[in-house]
Amino acid sequence: MNPARLMSTTDAIDPVFMFIFGACLVLLIGITVVMLYFVVRYHRSRAPVATSQNDGNAWLEAVWIVLPTLLVLAMFYYGWAGYLSLRNVPAGALEVTATARQWSWSFSYANGRTSPKLYVPVGKAVKVNLVSLDVIHGFFLPAFRVKRDIVPGMKNYAWFVANKAGSYDLFCSQYCGTGHSAMITTVEALPAAAFEEWLEKVPEGAEHHGHDILEKYGCLGCHSEDGTVKVGPSFKGLWGKSVTVVTKGMERTITVDEAYLRRSILEPGADVVKGFPAIMPPFALKAEELGSVLAYLKGLK
Amino acid sequence: MNSAEPVERGFWNDTGTTGISSWIFSSDHKRIGLLYFYSTFGFFLVGVVLGLLLRIELMAPGRTIMGPQTYNALFTVHGVVMIFLFIIPGFQGSFGNLVMPIQIGARDVAFPRLNLFSWWLYMAGAVIILTSLVTGGGPPDTGWTFYVPFSARTGTNVSLAVFGVFIIGFSSILTGLNFVTTIHRLRAPGMSWDRLSLYVWSLYATAWVQILATPILAITLVLVMAERMLGTGLFDPAKGGDPLMYQHLFWIYSHPAVYIMILPAMGVVSDIIPVFSRKPIFGYKFIAFSSLAIAAFGSLVWGHHMFTSGMSDRAVMVFSFLTFIVAIPSAIKVFNWVSTLYKGSISLEAPMLFALSFIILFSIGGLSGLILGAAATDIHVHDTQFVVGHFHYVIFGGAGFAFFAAMHYWLPKFYGRRYAEKPAVMAWTLMFIGFNVMYFTMQVLGMRGMPRRYYDYLPEFARLNLVATIGSWILATGLIIMVVNLFRGLWWGPPFSGNPWGGATLEWSTPTPPPTENFLEEPTVTHGPYDFSALEREVIKTGEETA
Amino acid sequence: MSDGTPHHILGYNTLIKVWLALLLLTALTVWVAHLNLAIGHVWGSLAIACLKSGLVIAFFMHMRYEGRLLRWLLFLTLTTLAIYIGLTFFDVLYR
Amino acid sequence: MTHHTHKDYAGAKLGMWLFLFTELLLFGGLFLLYAVYLKRYPQEFTAAGREMHVVFGTANTAILITSSLLAAMAVTAIQRDQRRQTLWFLGGTVLCAIIFLTNKFFEWSAEIGHGFYPNSPRLATAPPGESTFFSLYYLTVGLHGLHVLIGASLLTWVAVKVKRGSVHGGDFVLLENGALYWHLVDLIWIFIFPLYYLIL
Ligand code: HEA
Ligand code: HEA
Ligand code: CUA
Ligand SMILES: [Cu+2]
Known about the structure:
The structure holds four protein chains of four kinds. Helix content of chain A is 34%, strand content 23%. Chain A is an alpha+beta fold. In chain A, a hairpin with a 2-residue loop joins β1 and β2. The longest helix of chain A is centred in the N-terminal third of the chain and has 33 residues, at 9-41. Chain C has two domains: 11-61; 67-95. Chain C has three helices and no strands. In chain C, α1 runs antiparallel to α2 (40-60). The longest helix of chain C is centred in the last third of the chain and has 27 residues, at 68-94. Chain D has a single domain, classed as Four Helix Bundle (Hemerythrin (Met), subunit A) (Up-down Bundle). In chain D, 82% of the residues lie in helices and 0% in strands. The relative contact order of chain D is 0.18. Chains in contact: A-B, B-C, B-D, C-D. At the A-B interface, α1, α2, β7 and β9 of A face α4, α9, α10, α11 and α12 of B. The structure holds heme-A (2 copies), dinuclear copper ion (CUA) and copper (II) ion.
């Protein structure tokens, strides 16, 4: 496993997988076939009495202690070597910080650009620094065979390189609560030039500003903008709707207005929409951020 | 009890008292064994229904029958029930209690009243866990692993559930020390260590794991409660704690715990295979010793659950290495079981079918464990459906199928009645097929990257999930047939007496069902547990007597 | 007793001697703690604590007069605990 | 059906020792955490250790050692079939336990009064390791205190049996096992004392 020839994390893991999987398959088939053969050959209908009362053989035992030992030692060695190549980040890797929270991702780049998707240039190694704001999450890229837990208070990292442009799944692999399975996004691998262009692009337009803030704080992990119900109610058509909420254990029906939304963001436990778990953490948005979010939500029909 | 032929009732009739109190206050190991059997098997059926609901939810992407919070609570409760209420207490408590004292020629366990107390503790823990589902913030939603900081923050009723598990841990400890003392002190004359059945050997090894590992779980759960109720912050990074230390402590117990689940199962299989092959077990000493080796090395490998956690690389190396070492004693067992079949006279009755399928299912599970044990490959499949497949293969395909084998092999002995053979074989066939359809598919899903504990998934995983769900229905059909057939047979079936399987261990030399103190007179042991030549002489002798 | 295990009876004098030794060691460990030997004194205090617990186990708990089995099992338990701590340190020390 | 034709003395003791092993491991988990956090926060642990009351700790150590001596003497006395002495020794042991717990109560009151308890505002502003130290201290010592309570109750119960004559020179496993439990309580304190009070 010469690092110089190593093209990607996938190349580091897959051969190990093939080796162990193959060896296991051979063993399994061997054991099954031998067992089935014995069962058929020595079935009581064919062998009414046992033709041997042999109860052991030291040589055989030695063979099947030593050979498996050698085999598993080989498995251990390749497994360990492959793991090391996941840990050693190639020099000159692009550094990105992934911030995980219940239940959304945010990726920030050296120049301050942030994004809910992980944009990376094709063919360049990327080192992802993993930061959690609350509980343990998991950074999982199946296509690149990369996984690392995101533990609050720890400086974990992972690296990978995308050799082909495209969109790859990114999952949260460590169980983190209600929205765990919704905590998914993608890696967008762009050709180097396109990536540079994306990186320098300033997020546009005041009219989308509210949307960006929702994205930044991870609200969209639980609330959709298109009407689908996720962990929390959807934002679409919310303004002006009448909903039943539970306030201090009492149900009441209200009409969604600015005051209600403001309270729901700053103090989510106060009124909880009926049918949804009371799990949203409070978000301390700055006044102007709150303003543009409310304006944005108002327009989201 | 309306069968034509009269059935001897043994310990069922021996005591003066009758009714429920002659059971729940009895210190007879056989009655306690049956109490354990019915309570653990009852919880198994509860867990099974929950598992089935999980599969229905996963049948198609998106919301199928429940919301995410319900799903999360459901797999947590499924895991907790299956692990702590079924498989850990199940084997030791029911078949350990029923069979072990008889197999060593004792009248009872060393501390009969402590034994009863263990059951009561178990029930108390179970009630507390059930209470936690309907009180406070609702059923816990942390996964059976209770990882902090999530378990310290969630609003659900984690504290109470954890307390229930704590109580059950206590029960497990007491059973363990009872069994170790029994095996050391109460063997009948002539029952030397090399004449113990392999089932007793495996229970002995298991009991040690219970004694040496369970206290760590107990203290860990106390710490979780303290974390939630007192804010001790030992695992909270904001207060200087380290979440990974929780994981260490949890797995220091919970990895050895998987051997609490599998060792008795291996013991059952080691007992059944020679009987149905009419041939001594191959490599007795190696199998007995490998049980101890599994118990010993099993305590050294817990870190393999933490390869992606951010643990030091050196620890990854050490734990990966030790994980591979612990696979070797299992390999020894598998090879010896298969060799026992060679030149035997094999009869494929229900217990044997379950035992043989145990070998295959356990091998699939165990070999997939090797993929998890190698650091590089575990990174890819950790926390995916592959792990879910792995442990259902070893727990359900391994321990579960061996449990079913034990049910078919030993329960008739204690009821004096038996089930019908044909439906039993049919049930086995369905279960074996359904099992593989479901869990093999889940392993493939895992290799393709579908994470575990996912309520919803991307469309690319839809087809295989549907297949897995269909597998669960086949499995369910088989299980229902098995349960109905077995219990109908035990309660109303034809009589079962003497030694129809032809076993050479001591339980087959007492009347069926055994009398209260197991033996009419204290047995003196003159031959090994798999010495069928000794047995044949006895069979002929008793045959003459009855003729 | 029916199993005929001989019971060793420990005289009061022996017990009191052990008690005095324990008190002395306690005084010693407090004194050592004041010497300010930096982190090294953790090991010092632990050594003294081990000595003290050895005395308690051997005499007060009669381990000296028990058969080989119990000693082995005690050894097994302590080894297990040492292993739990030791293997955890593979993580803690090298993280 | 529960006619005990023979009482398995060695078996009863084996069972008790096995139980003690599990108790050792229970505390072992806390000692493991102690070791890990001491490694991570040596300064903070030293600083926090200075807040502990060495005098209380030393006194309680002496008291527990004495109680252990009395428990051991009670075993000797019953073996010699001296019932009165046995009862005196047991009484002494329980008395020591009560003094120990009273001390503990005053010590904890003082510490809590100074604002040292898990999640306290004072610890919240202290460096992280100190709060860890105090949390561990309260949990370990609290659990130990619980064991003192259980042990004392157990010995009281045994004393009643001695008085009634069902525990006597010919059958004293119960007393011996009770004493074993009590020694374990002492044993654990022997380690708690230097680790928490003497980390100066
Ligand atoms: C009965 C329970 C049981 C048993 C017996 C095992 C047995 C093994 N387990 Fe498993 N395991 C679990 C229950 C069990 N496990 C559970 C419940 C989890 C998940 C917990 C959770 O996260 O929720 C888990 C998770 C788990 C992981 C962590 C995965 C992850 O989260 O990333 C790992 C990693 O190493 C692992 C490895 C092994 C190994 C190497 C064995 C070995 O003991 C297997 C040995 C057996 C064989 C090897 C097969 C038989 C032998 C042959 C066919 C002969 C040929 C063999 C050789 C040449 C070696 N298991
Ligand atoms: C002993 C252990 C055990 C057993 C036997 C099972 C059995 C089953 N498990 Fe279980 N499972 C666990 C232990 C076990 N499980 C654990 C520990 C977890 C991890 C939890 C966590 O992540 O925290 C888990 C997680 C888990 C998941 C993963 C959840 C996720 O990650 O998203 C799934 C999903 O399919 C699942 C499904 C099933 C199914 C379908 C069964 C099948 O056995 C069920 C088959 C169904 C039947 C056979 C039903 C038929 C019977 C009846 C309907 C009743 C009839 C009764 C009478 C007539 C009296 N389990
Ligand atoms: Cu975040 Cu799971
Ligand atoms: Cu494990």
